[in-house]
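Explain this protein:
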Amino acid sequence: MTRRIAIVTGSRAEYGLLRPVITGVQAAADLDLQLIVTGMHLSPEFGSTWREIEEDRVPIAARVEMLLGSDSAVGVTKSTGLGMIGFADAFETLKPDLVVVLGDRFEILAAATAAMLAAIPIAHLHGGETTEGAFDEAIRHAVTKMAQLHFVAACPYRDRVIQLGEAPERVFEVGGLGVDAIGRVERLSRDQLESDLGIDLSRRSLLVTFHPVTLDPDSATAQFTTLLKALDACEPDGTLIFTMPNADTGGRELMQIVKAYVADRPRAHAFTSLGQRRYFSLLAQVDAVIGNSSSGLLEAPSFHIGTLDIGDRQAGRLKADSVISCAPDLEAIVAGLRRLRDPEFQARLPTVVNPYGSGGAGVAIVEVLRSVELNGLVKKHFHDLPVNKVMA
């Protein structure tokens, strides 16, 4: 019997990570893909990236509208509520046998809650990670407790999911999906990128992404303004390529700051949505990644370029030797930018090993989705750790 696999995607970055799984489910004769599109994908403000999904010839089974015009705490809370209503309707119509969700955004919380209440088994991807500066941390662990199957990116994350009470036989270490996607995407050449994006990559180039710090929203604007001051001081002549922040609390204010900054500087460029092919192509061309995006930790090390990770949004995640972490103040950011140029640091980059593996996650995940026994999967027991391990 064909299994109906509902995969939820709410953002351009998440869809790119999910592509190996989506492709694998599409190719499996015993699986039926039900792609549910929500969140930023459906918003013109964030590029209406559902069109990119259609261009990939991936059928959209359902669309769940949930983004409001406000990114305040109240607005995000209401969006989550609307999402739960929409996902309840979508699951009732599609009747999936299993729901696949990735990560830790509020769209995913809405989907997982609706699936849990409908007694539909959940497979959670990239659980067990920590991001101490964002409320994504709490969402990620909450979704872990709602899910029955867990696909993690590294051994410490598997240990953490088990520490949360999940049965070891249901936790699969498959590696990072971002690393998996890198090997599958055909990249554009430098000339193609420059022509397509209207940018100059012959000079030193930096890819900059700064998302809101959701557990300290009042500081995000100040931190980002400080970063821009540091870039003006240390990188006055290089090409700066900004990708816009997510639809998190305070994200729209950061978007306005980016637009104003770029308008005054011909060397700076901003893009709402690059798409995975152009994004990976840029990672292969730029000199470094700057900001607080998870991509600087998960994917950038595979391109053997440096990452300056600012603040505590990604605090707690595994970091390759190519990642420099710094406080979000001017002195620390300037020091970090200078270290990126340091010859000794640059000499280490070619041998950097990405802690999130070397690929293959998509194939491993699809194989489990095909073979796992679904009967009785919803019910689970809390897996207690041995007392001596807990005390340690």
